[in-house]
Amino acid sequence: FNKFRLVYDETHTVSVLADARVKLRNSLTADLGFAYNNCKPTSEEYAWYRPTTEGKLKLTYALNDQLSFNSTFLYQGGRYASIQDDFGSNRMGWGPEKLKDVFDLRFGADYKVDDQITAFALLDNVAHQKYQLYYNYPVSGIQFFAGVKLRF
């Protein structure tokens, strides 16, 4: 039942983007982001899986010059999936399906070793949401990532 259908289509897109960074205190900053995407495909009904609205709020607290903590809330809404059978025909109950909105909460930490190397840890999907990035493919529950960022 799980499958992907690859579609090439010319899409006319108008996006309105807004980003802001606010320094709340010496060590606390807030990053705010919003995007509205108006996509009009030439032959398809929707720009499949493309969100109409996106939002982000990230708070970062710098404990000192090396260690910082952050929390991020992400939102995506207005996404559609194309549900069709193997022959491409729409049967009863098949067709476009509106996907549930995405609400994601993550916590992270960064440790700056020097100007080029930063170690990080990230706890993603803290609320354990089962949203679908693609139809019938729910994301994993709580996820943990760790690694190193290199700056050249």
Explain the overall architecture.
With 152 residues, the protein is mainly beta. The strands form three sheets. Strands 1-2-3-4-7-8-11 form a seven-stranded antiparallel beta sheet, with no helix packed on it. The chain is elongated and about 55 Å long. It starts with 10 loop residues before the first strand and ends with a strand. The model has no long low-confidence stretch (mean pLDDT 90).
Briefly, what is this?
With 152 residues, the protein is mainly beta.
Task: Output the keywords.
mainly beta; single chain; 7-stranded antiparallel β-sheet; two-stranded antiparallel sheet
- Give the percentage of residues in beta strands: over 45%
Q: Percent range for helical residues? A: under 10%
Category by helix and strand content:
mainly beta
Radius of gyration: 19 Å
Neighbour order of strands in the largest sheet? 1-2-3-4-7-8-11
Q: Please trace the helix and strand order, writing H or E for each element.
A: EEEEEEEEEEE
Instruction: Give the low-pLDDT segments.
Output: none
Distinct helical segment count: 0
What is the molecular shape? elongated
Number of strands: 11
Main beta sheet:
7 strands, antiparallel
Mean pLDDT: 90
Span from first to last CA? 44 Å
